[in-house]
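Onboarding guide, step 5: your first structure request.
Type a short instruction followed by the sequence, for example:

Predict the 3D structure of this protein.
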Amino acid sequence: MKEYYREKGIEYPETAEDVSRLREESRRVSSDLVERKSPRINQSAEQQTPEPAEATKQNMQSTSASIDGTAEEGVENVVAEQGTDQPDYSDAEPPEVIDIAFVPSEAFPGDSVTILVQAVDNLSGVASIYGVIHSPSKKATLSFSCPLLEDDGKFSGVIKIPEHAEEGQWLLSSLRLADAVNNSKNYSQNARLLRNSFLTVVNSDSDTLSPELRAVTVDPREPEGGDKVNITIQAVDEKSGVARVYGVYASPSANARLSFSCMYDVQSGLFNGSFTIPEDAQSGVWRIEYIRLEDEAKNSVLCYEKDFSSLFHNAEIQVYTRNSDGAPPALARVSVYPFSVAYKEEVEIAVQARDDVSGIASVTGRLKSPSGIAHIPFVCNFNSDRNEYTARIIIQMNTEVGTWRVDNILVIDNARNQHNYIYQTEPVVEQATFEVVGE
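The system replies with C-alpha cells like these:
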C-alpha cells in the first residue's frame, strides 16, 4: 500500500497527526464531489442536512484503540495471544479507516450511490472492504463492497437505492476491512466514524413494513431418503412486494439442516420451492427452523417457530430412511507439516475423520495468526492414498511471524450432520500448530 501511494504521488499517513489532517482533507474532497454529482439537491438543502440520529448504545464487552489513538466504542478488540514484537516485514496489524463518504449524500429511490472509503494498512495493503447500511427503522439493510482503488487513494463501491426505500437517514451498521495477509478489523454501528457516516433518502414513497407470512404447506408429509419435498409459502407485502423467500429445516437432533428457497408463481400468487431428503438423513420429525422474508424495499423479517407455531406445525415432515444418520462425523487427528515455514513456502493441513453411516461430504477450516487478528480459510480434499483430508496453503509475504494454529475444523457428512471442532475444546485441534519464520 505504501508503494501504491508513492506511485500515485499521494501522501501516506504515518502518524496520528497525518491521519487527522488527511481526514479533514478527505471530507473537503467528499463535499466537493457531492456538489458536483448532486445536481438535483439545492444549496439550501445541503446546508440544512440534519445530523445523524444517535445510534442505540449497547454494552460493549471490550473496546479498542481508534485511529486517533483513543479508546472507542464499536471497534472490535483483539488481544494479542503472543508478544507484539515483530520484525519490520511481519504484518500483524489490521487496516484502519480514515474516512467514509456517500456520493451524493442525498439520493432518491432508484439512484446509484457511490461509497468512498479511505483506509490504510501498515504493510501488506488493504485487500477488501465490506459493509452494511440500515434504514431508519432498521428493518431494511443494504450490503456493499468497495473493490476499486481510485487515483485519490480511496476505495469505492456502488449501491442502488431500492424503489420505496424508507425515507430518512440510512446509517452504517457495520464495516469490515481485511489486508492482503488476512488481518481484519470490524467496526460496529457504535464506532464514531460509522455514527457520523450516513446517507439521506429523500422524496420516497416509503415502505417501512416487512412482509407478512400467511401460510406454509409441504408435500409429501412423510418423505423417504432421496425424495423431493415441495414447499409452498403464502407471503404478502402491501407496498413494494415480496422479493425473496427462503428458510431452513432442522433434523430431530438439530445436527443437520436443509435449506430451501422459493420462487414466485404468477398464476397462483404463491412462492414455490423444494429440497431433497438425503439418502441417510436422520429418521424422525424434521421441523422448520426459520423462514426469512424480504420485500423489494429490502425490509426483512425472520419468522421462527415460537411466533408461528401453528403454521410451522402444519409444515412438519416425518422422514424415514433405511440407514438413519443423526450423528455428526468424528474427528480423529489434525496435523500440520512442516512445523516451521518461511514466506512463499507451503504448509499442509492433514485431517483424519470418520463417519460410519452416510460418509463425509466436506472438511473445511481456518488458520489463526499469533495475534488472533488474521484468519486464513482452507478447504480439504480427500487423499485416498493416505485416507485423510488435506489442504495446502502458501504462506504469503508479510504474513505475521510466530506460532500459527488451526483455529477450527468443520466436518459435514452426506446426511448433512455437522460439527465444528474448535481448538479451545478439542485437544486434537489444539496441538495443530506451526511456526511462520518469515524471510
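Each response can be followed by summary notes, for example: The mean pLDDT is 86.
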